[in-house]
Amino acid sequence: MPQRIIDRIRYCKLTEADLKTIDEARRARQSRIYEYRPPFMRNEKRTARLHEEHVGYHLPLGIVVPELTELAIDFWQDPDARLMSGYRKLEEATREKANVHGHGSKLFADVFLSTPAKLEWDVPDAAEQKGRGQLFTAAYMAHRNPRAHRTPSTHEAELVSEFMVLNHLFRLLSEAEIPASAIS
């Protein structure tokens, strides 16, 4: 595209002749994916810094589960406290749904990984059942336990990621049901 037309686009001064030139122009495809990014964004470290400075980190409230909405709204006032409250809510909801006692990763192992499991998902594969159960115990051990016993990370990207893991666990819990064999 001629520079004169690009300049007129910038200043909103296109003529009919310019529109005709644009319509008749041969489409150019970028040959490499990195060419779609402007040169200043091709440096990964700089791109991450620019993202942090200009975009920031936000919780996608549209996909936050109702159980966590209240915590998400004022999340940035005290992220550590909101995450710990979220983990407590997850434990309480799991205990209530499975009608069991216990706490921590042992609670999740008892509810999802015991034989027979106290809660399970309507999925066709036993490995998927096991994987989902392990996700609960692993996420709890990897995120909640360190948060409870050490000074946690304050990096915004990590905080948002951890909140979204917690959100996902609530989504999985909402889909879990007491097995039919346990009801009879």
Question: Could you outline the blueprint of secondary structure elements for this entry?
Answer:
Elements lengths: L2 H8 L5 H9 L19 H11 L11 H8 L5 H20 L5 H10 L12 H24 L6 H20 L4 H4 L1
Helix pairs in contact: 4-5, 5-6, 5-7, 5-8, 6-7, 7-8
Order of helices and strands: HHHHHHHHH
Helicity range: 55-70%
* Backbone shape: elongated
Radius of gyration: 25 Å
Number of H- or I-type helical stretches: 9
Distance between the termini: 72 Å
- Report the mean per-residue pLDDT as an integer: 87
Number of DSSP E strands:
0
Largest sheet: none
SSE class: mainly alpha
Low-confidence stretches: none
Bin the strand percentage: under 5%
Q: What count of structural domains?
A: 2
Structural notes for this entry:
The protein has 184 residues and is mainly alpha-helical. The protein folds into two domains: 52 residues, no CATH class; 123 residues, no CATH class. Helices cover 62% and strands 0% of the residues. Helix 5 crosses helix 7. It is elongated and about 80 Å long. The N and C termini lie far apart (72 Å).
Give the tags.
single chain, mainly alpha, 9 helices, elongated, 184 residues
Short description:
This protein is mainly α.
